[in-house]
Amino acid sequence: MVHIDHAPVNALSRGVRQGLLDAVRGLEDDASVSALVLSGGPGRFIAGADLKEMALPPDEPFLPEVVGAIDACTKPVVAALDGAALGGGCEIALACDLRIGSAKALVGLTETRLGIIPGAGGTQRLVRLVGVAQAIALVCEGRVLKAGEALALGLLDAVVEGDLLAEAIARAPTVAKRR
């Protein structure tokens, strides 16, 4: 299990990106691990970019590299969303093989609200899940979807009641890799 812990919203700071990249690469090489679960902890996932870093020069690892490592991981990766998965957080979730959320989950590519376009593969992955027309509307509007609507559109694979993390861990070994 990979626990993202960068209060208050798990913004994708350089340290969070590096930690995710190191964890995915390290666990992929661990023969005792059959699947990975990404969790932001109670009430959270990843709420997007660290806006404090937006005025600074770009710093590695860049989000597309992190998302690419999750996508390329040979072991199944499950995203457990118990809160906001917005912007880059949504792109990370979209790279996972299974996305399950609590009733508190929120999902969306909200970069257009800031005048930028999602740049870590989310637009391509979104199209594969919801189709071109729906993806265009979601990205252009920067819509934030509640758990039920995200489930209905196919952005979430399940919405669970009770212990989200326990459910994610239980499902992880049975998840097939998506391509």
From TrEMBL:
UniProt organism field: Xanthobacter flavus
Question: Which PROSITE patterns does the record match to this protein?
Answer: ENOYL_COA_HYDRATASE
Name of the protein in its database record: Enoyl-CoA hydratase/carnithine racemase
Q: Name one Pfam family in it.
A: ECH_1
Q: Which CDD domains has this protein been placed in?
A: crotonase-like
Q: Which family does it belong to?
A: Belongs to the enoyl-CoA hydratase/isomerase family.
User: What InterPro entries does its record include?
Assistant: ClpP/crotonase-like_dom_sf (IPR029045), Enoyl-CoA_hyd/isom_CS (IPR018376), Enoyl-CoA_hydra/iso (IPR001753)
Q: Which UniProt keywords are listed?
A: Isomerase, Lyase, Multifunctional enzyme
